[in-house]
């Protein structure tokens, strides 16, 4: 894709701080550095989002993530790691080339926050069972 910034990095048309590359996958430092060591992992093949990924594409991307996460943890002495993937604008995707964020975590007060809401009171065992069956019917 001509205008995709991640394709341009992958094709070496523009610079990127690449920390890993093989035939299928590229990992490079995110220029935003949400936390020290923030890294993006992408398939070299242009794929817009998780809904366009094949199992093979996903296998290539996720096969390297443990190695990269461990290297980031060791390099920066991180206490933890968020592994984040946003798909479609409503979920926060801003670059439409599939990518996974590896965000090292150093403290509860560092510059990244994830907030989950507990909506358990809104669901009963029966309504969860119905949701489950609805999802299974679409697999």
Describe the 3D structure.
This protein is of the alpha+beta class. The chain has one domain (about 5-135): HIT family, subunit A (2-Layer Sandwich), CATH 3.30.428.10. The protein is about 30% helix and about 20% strand. The chain has helices spanning about 5-10, 55-75, 125-135, and strands at about 20, 25-30, 40-45, 80-85, 100-105. It has a five-stranded antiparallel sheet with strand order 1-2-3-5-4, with helices on one face. The model has no long low-confidence stretch (mean pLDDT about 95).
CATH architecture: 2-Layer Sandwich
**Strand fraction band?**
15-25%
Radius of gyration: 17 Å
In the CATH scheme, the class would be Alpha Beta
Q: Give the number of helices.
A: 3
The count of strands amounts to 5
CATH topology: HIT family, subunit A
The arrangement of helices and strands along the chain is HEEEHEEH
Spatial order of the strands forming the largest sheet: 1-2-3-5-4
Termini gap? 30 Å
Query: Helical content, roughly?
Result: 25-40%
The assembly state of the depicted protein chains is single chain
Largest sheet: 5 strands, antiparallel
* Count of distinct structural domains: 1
CATH superfamily: HIT-like
Pfam family, one: HIT
Domain HIT: 5-113
Motif (Histidine triad motif): 97-101
InterPro entries: HINT, Histidine_triad_CS, Histidine_triad_HIT, HIT-like, HIT-like_sf
